[in-house]
Structures are given as C-alpha cells and as structure tokens.
Specification:
Layout lengths: L2 E6 L3 H14 L3 E7 H9 L6 E7 L1 H10 L9 E7 L5 E6 L1 H5 L5 H22 L1
Antiparallel strand pairs: 1-5, 2-3, 3-4, 4-5
Helix pairs in contact: 1-5, 3-5
Organism: Candidatus Thiodiazotropha endoloripes
InterPro entries: DUF302, TT1751-like_sf, UCP021774
Protein name: DUF302 domain-containing protein
C-alpha cells in the first residue's frame, strides 16, 4: 500500500478546509493545490467529479530530509487527495511516506518517514471526528 484514507460525508469544500486546518496543527502547509477536475475540463473538455491534489509540506522535516538525501525532493511533498465519490461522499487519501521513502535506503530517512506518517495519521483521525 502506498496510501491510507478516510471516507467522509459532507461538503467537499468544508472537508478540504478541515484537512488543511488539521495539517496545520501537525506543522504542514499546503504548497500546491492541483484542481484535477478543472484542469481536465480546460485541457480535454472532460467532466469529472471534484478531485484535488494538495501538496503538503512540513518545512523542518523537509529540510531534514533534504540534508539526509539531496535528491529526496523528487519524492516530496506529501500528497493528499480530496475527491468526491459517485455517491457524494468524499475520500481523503494520504500518501504513505513510509512506503514512498523506503526507496531511499537511509535509516535516518526511514525514521523521519515514520514520524511523518504518524502526523498524517493524526490528520486523518482529526478529520474523522
């Protein structure tokens, strides 16, 4: 598995705001926001349900990761997907940093990945409340 997720009922915009607020509590900011629905509509004329990719970053941990492995930026930021399902529910999926960062075979990166995963799991738990 390269992700873990939660499925919620509610307004997608409200849920996205809850995700961003919970990320902030854990020291993350959202560096990028990709509106996949809007992009596919604009570029391909395809209608899709709402789907956003949030690029979350915890600056101290990102700095620590870059110090440990300069090319690790290829695996950052931690992406969070907020998407509306066919039944109207909203899935929030988190990249599992342990699964992704195990590509970097350095113990200090593995330890940091576990810390990041625990923080993201707390974000997931917070939005489920």
């Amino acid at each position: 598995m390269y992700s873990f997720k939660s499925r919620l009922d509610g307004n997608i915009d409200d849920i996205e705001q809850r995700v961003v607020a919970a990320l902030k509590v854990e020291g993350f900011g959202v560096l990028t926001e990709i509106d996949v629905k809007a992009t596919l509509k604009e570029k391909l004329g395809i209608e899709k349900r709402p789907y956003k990719i949030l690029g979350a970053c915890n600056p101290p941990l990102a700095n620590q990761a870059i110090d440990a492995e300069p090319d690790i930026g290829l695996l950052l930021p931690c992406n969070v997907v907020v998407r509306q399902e066919e039944d109207g529910s909203v899935t929030v999926a988190f990249m599992d940093p342990v699964a992704v960062l195990k590509l970097v075979e350095k113990p200090e990166v593995g330890d940091m990945a576990m810390d990041v995963r625990q923080r993201l799991e707390r974000v997931r738990d917070a939005i489920e409340r």
